Amino acid sequence: MLKGKDILNTAQFSPQELNLIMNTAANFEKQVKDGNIIRNMEGKIVATLFFEPSTRTRLSFETAANRLGARVISVASAASSSAAKGESLADTIRTVDGYADVIVMRHPMNGSAQIAADSAKHPFINAGDGSGQHPTQALLDIYTIRKEKGALEGKTVTFVGDLKYGRTVHSLSYFMTLYGNKMFFVSPKSLRMPSEITADLRSRGAEIEETEDLKKALSVSDIVYVTRIQKERFEDLAEYEKVKGSYIINSSIINQSKKGITILHPLPRVDEISTDVDDYE
Questions:
Q1: Angle at CA of residue 22, ends 132 and 64, nearest 5°
Q2: Sign of CA dihedral 246, 249, 251, 253
Q3: What is 164-229 written as a DSSP string?
Q4: How far apart are CA 9 and CA 138, in angstroms?
Q5: pLDDT mean across residues, the chain
Q6: 213: pLDDT strictly greater than 80
Q7: Per DSSP, which regions of the chain are E strands?
Q8: In CATH, what is the architecture of 37-129?
Q9: Is pLDDT at 87 greater than 90 in this prediction?
């Protein structure tokens, strides 16, 4: 069903494919906890190309590859690759494609994932393309939601923070639509969800309410998905200063929210979730 396919965005998945991925992940998670050795990728090479900073995504991919018996070759930054010499992305990918069986890439340019996939003969995985999408983060998010909530259907989800540049929000909102969940989009006006994404989600049957009233949204939400204001996306730092700290999730806010609300954050965290909710259950 999925063998040999590229992973570019979350709109490409069916519920059946997501169920297969989550069940496989649960099986692997159990095997690792039980101390079993998995060698499904013995003899394969995974190339990780990170042209933007990353801690969790890069290390999690490389950890997974190693646990599955693959070997990893890596470019940790644009400065350490031939991109610094002016090489095109397509040429870089064609070269790496000759070395690796799978390519994982993060890049600051929107649409870079499609360019890479078109340039590679081997499977390509998008680990974040600018402010476009981050499909593997969304896969982790729905897996977490299923573990925490027991089901993916019939939930009310609030997305809060930087919805304009937040690629994790763009990705997860498509999955939430697939399972018929209601969504609140809470953000400063300048960081609203891109209109083309909102329109596309609604065309797929999504129930969406856009608001600046965080307390109202959280009073009826089962899940709140919090994102940081992404300073690196602003050309004018004065504009960033205007919106940073617009919404902060703290114990006071949570105490006024729907009982049992689940808090998710793709990380890194800056100041949008107070440490006083770290032990919230």
A1: 75
A2: positive
A3: TT-HHHHHHHHHHHHTT-EEEEE--GGGPPPHHHHHHHHHTT-EEEEES-HHHHHTT-SEEEE---
A4: 9
A5: 93
A6: yes
A7: 45-50, 71-75, 102-107, 124-129, 156-160, 182-186, 207-211, 223-226, 262-264
A8: 3-Layer(aba) Sandwich (3.40)
A9: no
Residue-wise pLDDT tens digits, 137-181: 999 999 999 999 999 999 999 999 999 999 999 999 999 999 999
Q: Residue ranges per domain, the chain? A: 37-129, 135-276
225 neighbors 272 (Cβ within 8 angstroms) = no
Confidence of residue 79 (pLDDT cuts 50, 70, 90): confident
Alpha-carbon span 31 to 53, nearest angstrom: 30
Prediction pTM value: 0.92
3 state DSSP class of 126: strand
Asked whether the domain spanning 135-276 has the same topology as the one spanning 37-129, the reply is yes
Q: Which CATH superfamily is domain 135-276 in?
A: Aspartate/ornithine carbamoyltransferase (3.40.50.1370)
From first CA to last CA, the distance across the chain in angstroms is 37
Pairing mode of beta strands 124-129, 156-160: unpaired
**Do residues 172 and 10 make contact, with C-beta atoms less than 8 angstroms apart?**
yes
- What are the CA-CA distances from residue 71 to residues 6, 68, 97, 135 (Å)? 20, 9, 15, 23
**Residue 197, phi then psi, degrees to nearest 5:** -70, -45
Residue 178 exposed, middle or buried by CB count within 10 Å (0-12, 13-18, 19+): buried
Q: Please choose, from the candidates 268, 266, 247, the residue with its C-alpha nearest in 3D space to the C-alpha of residue 257.
A: 247
CB contact at 8 A, 154 and 181: yes
Q: Are 2 and 139 in contact (CB under 8 A)?
A: no
State which amino acid sits at residue 134. Answer: H
d(CA 90, CA 117): 9
Q: Contact at 8 Å (CB) between 52 and 75?
A: no
